Amino acid sequence: MRKMEQLFIGGKWVKPSSGDVIEVIDAGDESLLGTVPVAKKAEVDKAVRAARQALGKWADTPVAVRAELLEKAANNLKARGSEIAEVISREVGMPLKMSQRIQAALPVIVMDSCAKVLREFPFEVQIANSRVFRVPKGVVVAITPWNYPLHQLVGKVAPALAAGCTVVAKPASEAPLSAFMLAEALEAAWFPPGVFNLLSGNGPETANLLVQHDDVDMISFTGSTSTGTKIAATAAATAKRVTLELGGKSPSLVLDDADFPKALRTTVNNCFLNSGQTCNALTRLLVPRNRLTEVEELVLPLVAGMTLGDPGDPNTKLGPLVSARQRDRVRQYIKEAIQAGTRLLIGGDAPPEGLSRGFYVRPTVFTDVDPGAVIAQEEVFGPVLCIIGYRDLEEAVAIANGTPYGLAAAVWSADTDRALQVARRIRAGQIDINGAPFNALAPFGGFKHSGYGRELGVFGLEEFLEPLSIQLSA
Ligand code: NAD
User: Fold this and answer.
1) Which of 146, 281, 441, 447 lies in the 20 to 30 Å Cα band around 224?
2) Is 131 within a domain?
3) Are strands 21-25 and 32-37 parallel, antiparallel or unpaired?
């Protein structure tokens, strides 16, 4: 049991003013994994004050020093990789092997890449008689969700610190433990006091106090669209900068000339990764209508072979969902889709056999789904795939664009130029052609209700900078 009793404020581990705690539950067996404190107004004020006091000196710290500290912190995280993977696997439910590769290793890559981008970034440009400086936006509040808890936190904290901003972080209450390891990694790298502060707590309480705070300059948020839009509205009262990384309902568009077995296998693996608790999951499989039967025959064994079980068991391909609330929500979506007459290919809302403890949901596929149906429009955030038939390319593109979201997409074709032309017609921030790999330097973020602002690489760094233009006389 990990009992975290202190918050990280102004470079020190501080006992909070209240005894309130959040219980962190093991998704696989519902046991108590740990507790973290709830930061109240006193801690919020203290952390923002510490971040404000540290800002001037940190912004003036040479780029080479900031980059070096980030690299040290990345090394510190790397050294604790197996512990991080284990903790997040228990919190979130991702199978351990996958957790090692994604939950623990990816944040190290991202933090290292931030240091590289920082060293090469042009902080000063001359435009005619103006010298334009890129200066830090100031005190940044990072609010993050539970599904990739360390990756999402590092995706904000590393570029913010690289830019010369100072940070107060508020991780998700379902999976906050790796945030404490991040604080320890930054502390051990000797980041100056106040540059990074960690407040665990609840969204409506702790995070909301930060969003309202007069002395915060920017909110960098990842989470649901409903919370994100509320935060943006609240932050508008004090003209804070806001970036929002929100939900998705991403299409995988398989063109008639594609390699079907490869396209379907990759889409299924992507959709069910982390039990579907992935914002850019490919949850809508768009295929030519006259090949629906062939597609169903290929998809069925792939999903039937997904062994559901404890995330620590090496045979497990699919773990539980993060919480009872999330499990019930996903099962309800499945139940209502069945009641609405949607064709179920495999899975369903019934509890899986032999797993009486843990937040498990059967991997579920609906087929021949009406693109306007609730299950094909709303973000389920669970192991659910919708197969949708299209008649021609025009209809396929219309369906791909036909939800309120626009975070990611995939396009499959034997002809890369054709796939590229189709990809450019899709309104989404990240589009992969023929299973191209994730690029930690490419801008990540959404169109439409998937939010605004970008993370990762140069675009991610720029979000934390403000142009300051000085005109010089001849
Ligand atoms: P959530 O919106 O409930 O919570 C996200 C964070 O916001 C948490 O830290 C939470 O404590 C805080 N919060 C909740 N209510 C708040 C309030 N009233 N004021 C201020 N803060 C508040 O989301 P979640 O359930 O943790 O995560 C799942 C969602 O996140 C999904 O919709 C998913 O698509 C989205 N997501 C998006 C991305 C992306 O990069 N676009 C990445 C991961 C997850």
Assistant:
1) 441
2) yes
3) antiparallel
Answer whether residue 74 is part of any domain. Answer: yes
The position carrying tokens 């006992």 is 15
Let me know if residue 444 belongs to a domain. Answer: no
Would you say the CB of residue 223 lies under 6 angstroms from ligand 1?
A: yes
Say which CATH number the domain at 85 has.
3.40.605.10
Enumerate the β-bridge partners of residue 141.
168, 219
Domain of residue 105: give its range: 2-246+450-471
Q: Which atom of ligand 1 is nearest to the CA of 210?
A: 20
Distance CA(61)–CA(165), nearest Å, equals: 11
> Structure pTM?
0.97
In a domain, 445, yes or no: no
pLDDT of 268 reads 98
Q: Does residue 278 have its Cβ closer than 6 Å to ligand 1?
A: no
> What SS3 state is found at 1?
coil
Tell me if 147 CB under 6 Å of ligand 1. yes
Asked if residue 474 has pLDDT above 90, the reply is no
pLDDT in tens, 102-134: 999 999 999 999 999 999 999 999 999 999 999
Domain shared by 214 and 73, yes or no: yes
